[in-house]
Amino acid sequence: MLRLVLGRLASFVPTLFVASVVLFLAVNVVPGSAARSALGIQATPQALKRFEHQHGLDRPLAVQYVEWAGKALQGDFGTSFQNAVAVGPEVRKRIPVTLQLAGMAFLVAIAIAVPLGLIAGFRHQTGTDGVLTTLATLFGSTPNFWFATLLIYFFSLRLGWLPTGGYTPYLEDPVANLQGMLLPCIALGVVSSGLLIRIMRTAVIEVTFSNFIETARSKGVSNVRLVTAHVVRNALIPFFTVSAVEFGFLVGSVVIIEEVFRIPGIGSLVLVGIINRDYPVLLAAAMSITVIVLVVNLIVDLAAQLIDPRQVQVAR
Amino acid sequence: MAEAAKPSGRDGGRTLLAVEGLQIELERRAQPPAPIARNVSLRVDEGEIVGLIGESGSGKTVTAKSLIGLLPDRIRVAAGRAMYRGRDLFALTPQQMRAVRGAEISLIPQDALHALNPVQVIGRQVGEPVEVHTNRPAADIRDLVVRLLERVRTPDPRARAGDYPHQFSGGMQQRALTAMALSMEPPLILADEPTTALDVTIQAEIIALIRDLRAQTGASFLFISHDLGLVSSLCDRIYVMYAGEIVESGARDGIFGRPRHPYTHALMGAAPRLLGNPERLSTIPGRIPQPSEEMAGCRFRDRCPRVESRCAAPPALREVAEGHAVRCWLA
User: Fold this and answer.
1) What is the ipTM of this complex?
2) Do A234 and B114 make contact, defined as CB atoms within 8 angstroms?
3) Of B86, B146, B185, B225, whose Cβ has the fewest other Cβ atoms within 10 Å?
C-alpha cells in the first residue's frame, strides 16, 4: 500500500509539469493585455510598455515560464498585478474553503448516486430503472448555476431557511459554516450525481451478471441480502475508480458556484484572475486546483483498493 | 407421460425427483418462442448419482437450473412438472423456491473462480446457506464451516476459512463450493460440470469426494457433464441429451456397454482415449442445431452416420431393454 502511494505521488511530478506548461501557454494565448487590465484603458503606450517590462512580460515565454516555475517550486507565486498582494498566502488561505466545498459536494453526489444507481441497476430494464435513468440524465444536464439560483430562490428568498451566500469559517461558527455550504453543495452534488448514478448503475448491472450472484441465489439468499452482501461491495470497486474522474469535473464547476454563492475559494480567485488578466493569481489558483484534483483522485483510488481484497493483497 | 423413461433405480431406491414433460423456451421478440428443452423427463432416486450428458448447447445446464428457478432472463419453463417430495417445483412461489434452494436442492456451480464472491471470505460463503435458512448462532456456523471444509479436505480449515477466493487454488475453490452445497445437507445436489475448469488429478479428487459424500450422507446427485469418462466412473444411471431432447437413458452399464443411439456412439468415439477434456467433440461432423431451428424428424439426422429415410419422422423415446430407452428408429 505504501509503495502504491509513493508511486502515485511520484507520478504527480510529470502531471504537474505538463499541467503547468499547458496552463502557462493558455494564460498567455488568451487575447487581452495584462497591462491594460491593470492600468485601465486610459493608460499611455509608454505606461503599458513600462508595466510589461517591470513584470517581465516582454521576454520570451520560455524564459518567463522557467522563472515562474523556479520561484513556484520555492513556494513563491509572485504578487498580483492588480494590488501587489502576495499570491501564495492568498491561495493557501482559500484552499481549505474550496476543499470543503468540493469534498462535501462530492459526498452529496455519492450519497445520491450509490442508492439510486443500486436500485436502477438491480431493477434494470424495468420502469423503476427508466425513471431513475431519466432522473440521472436530468440531473446531469442541469446547469449548476441555474439550479443554484433556483435553490437560492426557494430556500433562501421564499422560505428563508438558509443564507443566500457568503462564507463563515468552520472554526468560527460551525453551524453558520454548514448552513452556508449546504446550498452550494447540493447544487454541485446533484448535478454531479447525474453521471455517478449511471456509473453505479452500470457497475451494478455488471456485477448482477456475475456467476457468483447466481451462486448466491442458488443458496436461497433473499434479494435484500443479495444486494447488501454480494452486489454493493463489488459494484463500489469500479464505481470509485470512475467517480474520481467525475470529481475533476465537479471542481471545474466550483468556479461558477463560488461566484454564485460569494464563497471566497480558489474558484472565485480563478475567475478574478481571468477577468483581470492577472497571470500570477490565475496560475497559482489553477495549479492549486490541479493539485486538489490529483490528491482527491489518489484518495478515491485508495478507497477503491481498500474494499478490494485482491488489490490489498498485491499492494501489501 | 408416454415418453417418460422409467428404468429401474439403483437398489430400488425411492424416487426423489421426477421431471415430466419439461418444456423450456427462449422468448424472442416478434417470433414464437424457441424451445431449449423439449419434453424432457428424468428421474433421480434417493442416494443415486444420475448423469446428464451432452455437448455444450444441448440444454443440460438449463434443464438442471430450471429445477431451482435459476433460469436467465427470457428463458422460462413453458410446460411440465418436477415432482420433488410431493411438490411440483415449477409451481412454487418465489418465497417457497427460495426455501428450497440451498436447503433442499443445492447447486455446485461450474467455473469455481467466478462462482465465488471475490470480496467475501470463503468461510462466510460456505456458511451462507445455513445463515440464510436457519437461526443458528454465528459461532455455531463458524464451527460448522470448519468441519465442512475439513470434510472436503481443505488443509488447515480454520485458518483458510478467513481467506479470500483469490488466495485459494482452483481445486480448493471447487472443494469450497462443494462444501457450500453440502452445508444444509440437502437431499439433492445439482453438480453443473463441477470439474470442467480443473486439471485431471484434481478432477479425480473431486469425483472421489462426491462418491464419498454420497456414501456418507445418502444425498442424490444430478451430475451434469460433457465428459463421458467422468460420468462412466461416477454415475449409476445416465441421460444423454441432444438439442434439447433426451435421446438415450439407462443404467451406466447398459449405456456404456451397449450404446444404442448413434449420438451416444459418436460421443464415445469422440471422447479421447486417455486424458483430456474436449469442450468440442470434433469428430462428430456438423454442429448441434440451434433451439430456433425447426427440424422435422430426428434432430440428430443431419449429423448421423446411419441416417435413413424413416428418420424424417420424429422418433419417440422407447424402451429397448429393461430400463434402457432410446430415441432412434434404428435402435
Assistant:
1) 0.86
2) no
3) B86
